[in-house]
Each structure stands twice: as structure tokens, then as C-alpha cells.
Specification:
Protein name: Alpha-ketoglutarate-dependent dioxygenase AlkB
Number of domains: 1
GO molecular function: catalytic activity, acting on DNA; demethylase activity; dioxygenase activity; hydrolase activity; metal ion binding; oxidoreductase activity, acting on paired donors, with incorporation or reduction of molecular oxygen
CATH superfamily: Alpha-ketoglutarate-dependent dioxygenase AlkB-like
Keywords: Dioxygenase, DNA damage, DNA repair, Iron, Magnesium, Metal-binding, Oxidoreductase
CATH architecture: Sandwich
Strand content: 35-45%
CATH class: Mainly Beta
Bound molecules: 2-oxoglutaric acid, fe (ii) ion
Strand order of the largest sheet: 1-2-13-10-15-8-5
Number of strands: 15
Domain Fe2OG dioxygenase: 105-204
Number of helices: 3
Shape: globular
Cofactor: Fe(2+)
Length: 207
């Protein structure tokens, strides 16, 4: 852990993980502001259930999603390309708050809406070329708490790491986190309310 990225930010607690730089802030937003943002985003975001292609087969993703950002921050993964919608006032406000706390700039955000316990996200790393070699990804959670799992790609001896991403919390992944670790949000068997997750990213323009 080199600790260079956020030395000036004591509010972000470091999660001890080998080959990674992961910080967590339990209360980035208090409950009132978190609830207000959640209400607005549920209403104003152009939520879609995307189809992705895996091994030549089409699947509906088990969640809704949407891509917002600067024009030109086009993003491709698993056979789909997302053109960003223009920023809304609420998204710009959240982006500004996160930039202030992390000291990093972002030009796009992927929003995910987990409607209930049957929605989730499979194991992956956010390591697409347009994110650059050591991306900083800031992930804000609103609404129902869900468990976020990390698993190292090659060290089989280390324990998997799980974090409960509560309403209003901020998780920041930087350095070699994406290179060495995968992460996932499992489906659950007990009833869960809606959760929105926003992952702010910096897309490096293609070519
Ligand atoms: O919902 C989450 O906390 C994770 C989202 C995520 O991993 C992603 O958007 O790449
Ligand atoms: Fe991710």
C-alpha cells in the first residue's frame, strides 16, 4: 500500500488489502441527503435493462443501468457500447462532492439500480482500456445496503474480503486494485429494497 493518492484525506479509511488501494467512507452523505438523491435519481435517470453478450449468448443484465458523462466519454464492455447522457444537476453536484473529498476528477458515471435481492453484479474488474492502467473509481451507494465482495485474481491463500456498502457510503478503488482483484455484488435470498450505486470514472478518450 503506497498511500500517496489520498494522504490529505483523513476521512477515507484504508481497507487493508495486498496489491490494492481501497478506501472507504461510511458516511459520505447523511441519511437525509442520501434519501433525497436516491429519490431524484430513481425518477430522473434513463434506467434501462441492457442486453450483454457473453460467449456469443445474449443475456439481460440482472439490474438496470445508465451511463452519464461528458460527451465523448464512450464506454464499451461485454459487447455493448454506452453513449453517455448529459450530466444532470444532481449528478454534477454529487460528482463535485466526490471530487472534493478524493482530490480526483471524473468525466463519467455508470449508475446501477438493484431493484431487489434478485439483482446483482457478477465477478469482474473494471479494467477496460479506456479507463487507463490504474483507474480511480469512486463508488457511492444509496438505499438498501448490499455486500460487495473482493477476490484476488491469483493469490488463492488470502481471505476474500467483503464490505457492506451502506446508504450514503463511498468506496474508492485506485492503484492496482483492478489489476489484481475482481469484485461482485451477489444476488441474495432474503428480501432487499432498491439500491442505487454510482461509479464515477475517468475515461481516457479513444485514440
Ligand atoms: O454496485 C456496486 O457496488 C458495484 C458496481 C460495479 O462494480 C460497477 O459498476 O462496476
Ligand atoms: Fe465494478
Amino acid at each position: 500500500m503506497n498511500g500517496e493518492l489520498f494522504d490529505e484525506v483523513p476521512l477515507l479509511e484504508t481497507i487493508p488489502m495486498a496489491d490494492a488501494d481501497v478506501r472507504f467512507m461510511r458516511r459520505f452523505y447523511g441519511p437525509a441527503l442520501a434519501a433525497q438523491h436516491m429519490r431524484v435519481l430513481l425518477d430522473e435517470i434513463a434506467w434501462r435493462q441492457e442486453t450483454i453478450v457473453l460467449w456469443g449468448q445474449q443475456h439481460l443484465q440482472p439490474r438496470l443501468s445508465a451511463w452519464y458523462g461528458d460527451a465523448g466519454s464512450r464506454y464499451s464492455y461485454s459487447g455493448i457500447t454506452l453513449e453517455p447522457h448529459p450530466w444532470t444537476a444532481t449528478l454534477l453536484r454529487i460528482k463535485g462532492d466526490i471530487e472534493q473529498v478524493t482530490g480526483h476528477r471524473f468525466n463519467s458515471v455508470l449508475l446501477n439500480l438493484y431493484r431487489n435481492e434478485r439483482d446483482g453484479m457478477g465477478w469482474h474488474s473494471d479494467d477496460e482500456a479506456e479507463l487507463g492502467p490504474e483507474p480511480v473509481i469512486a463508488s457511492l451507494s444509496l438505499g438498501e445496503a448490499r455486500i460487495f465482495h473482493f477476490r484476488h485474481r491469483t493469490r488463492k491463500t488470502g481471505k476474500p474480503i467483503s464490505l457492506t456498502l451502506i446508504d450514503g457510503s463511498l468506496l474508492v478503488m485506485a492503484g492496482t486494485t483492478q489489476k489484481f482483484w475482481r469484485h461482485a455484488v451477489d444476488k441474495e435470498s432474503v428480501s432487499r429494497d432498491a439500491r442505487i450505486n454510482l461509479t464515477f470514472r475517468h475515461i481516457v478518450p479513444a485514440r
